[in-house]
Amino acid sequence: MLDFSLNKIFVEGNTDQKMIATILEIHYNISFPYNGLALEDCIINCNGWQGLFKQVALKEIYRIESSGKNLIIFDADNTSNLGGYTKRKKEIEVGFAELIKATKKNINYSIYLLPNDSDNGDLESFYMSCIKPDKRFFIECWNNLYGCLQSKNEARYELKIPKSAGMVYSYVDLFENYRTGFYQNKKTKRDYSDDGLWEYNFEENNHLKSLCKFLEDNLNLKSN
Amino acid sequence: MPDQSEFITHFEVSNFKKFDHLVVNDIGQFNLITGDNNVGKTSLLEALSLNLKSNNDLVFKFHSLLCDQHIHHHAENKYSKNPIIPKFNYFNLLKNKEELPLTLVFNSQKVILTDIDYFRLKEEDKDLFVSTPYFMDGIEYKYWIRIDKSNVKPEIQFMYEDDYYREDRKFESKLYKPIVKFRNFYERDLNKFIKELSQIELLNLTAFDYEEIVSIIKIVIIPDIIAINIQKINNDSDEMIFIATKSSKGLFVNVTRFGDGVQKIIRYLIEVYYAKKNGFNYFLIDEIDTGIHFSRLKIFWKEFLMLATKLNIQIFATTHSQECIEAYAQALEELGMEEKGRLIEMEEHNGKVYASTLSYENIKAGLISNTNLRGA
Asked: Is the predicted ipTM greater than 0.90, yes or no?
């Protein structure tokens, strides 16, 4: 049985937290609170990748001495934002090496970098793989818009080019009428389990299959 | 025992109450201890309070602690010259290997209770003992250890302060442990505390100390305070804390007229001075925030931490409150004392207690990510 008092998942933000929770719920029947532990105590939001080594859970002696697993599911990022798969992975490994040196104890960790643990990219790239097939034209539209804005990004305009999160928000807003859930406020607007907008195809989506394999290998999970 | 001038940075305790073996690393000058009920927060404070200047003190105070907790039986007819010595005795259990010895590690120095050679003490004559005055300095601890000849098999019996009554006993200062427990907040106890301190003339606060205490009380809890004093109501009464305020038109009023929160804060302030003046460089408080309104917690922490910094004293305090943790973190940040602050999170799994030491950076990250910092 999955023991979240021992094993923790670390993510970069709220959206990541919800995305992992959604996958755990629909594919592994794990919902939160889980065995009395709140979502934020199981899937920990580090508020950016640089917040990882400040997290309380990494200092917990019980978890360290019991070889608790630390699953790091972060963005690989791109060279344009000082990231990239190889660079980011190395940076996290160096951080753990320093932590192990400081605590003089072995710390059990595994890293998975979105979108697929091999390419550059981020959570949003991952999400784009989960867009409903009949709405995938949105990706092309967005990329055209983004490319156009980039080409006009001259100093005199001082453009605030949208971050990749903007792509997901725009998608959700654009297809508002396709939502099947009931949205009470702006926060629930970002519920990524809505099957009117998203399709979690565990058989064919390679990004999703790769992430699930990582979760299954490290947490001994079995799908529904 | 460690050099009293240095702070505790590493602590271990074995075979004490519910701790088989507990290790606390990376301890700071200021330490807020959290954890669920019955995880051992108070026990950790008690174990830390055994950091004393000599082995005699350790034995004496550990024994006192066992008595407080009714783990150790007292002698019957103890006020007579023929006390009945109880058979149950922690030290006999140790001798018979039915109990593992208390072991403490303060920084790099280790003390095991069995290291103390009470087994080799010579037999004392009971009647002579009863008629012999106490040694005030506590060095001759053989006076506390007896062989009970009434038993078929002679047993070493450890004697303690209230086994024999002495009108003239004045060793309370030796018994003093710089720990304020949760139950120590009410009028009777405050009265007893002040009475003990004033009777043995060890309070010894200067006018500057009182001035400092008044200025802190003014900021934290009684804005119109003018002065504080320890005095008697009349010649027959015990000494007590009195406070003069603008609203009392400058007249001194007994502190018991104020609420529990006021009494608590005043006690902390007086006792931290007292601990320092008696050679302790650490001070332990159980459930520090109980009775203090949440809106005053940050200013209380700020003033208390500034005072502890000025007195160069190490603080260990427990709490159950998230608001107290938040106020503590804010106070550290506003004082620029982040490096000195720690949160020690205690949790129990399968009967074993673990203590994780968190830095200010960890505390802040935990507060932001809404992680439970109050312990499992």
From this structure: no
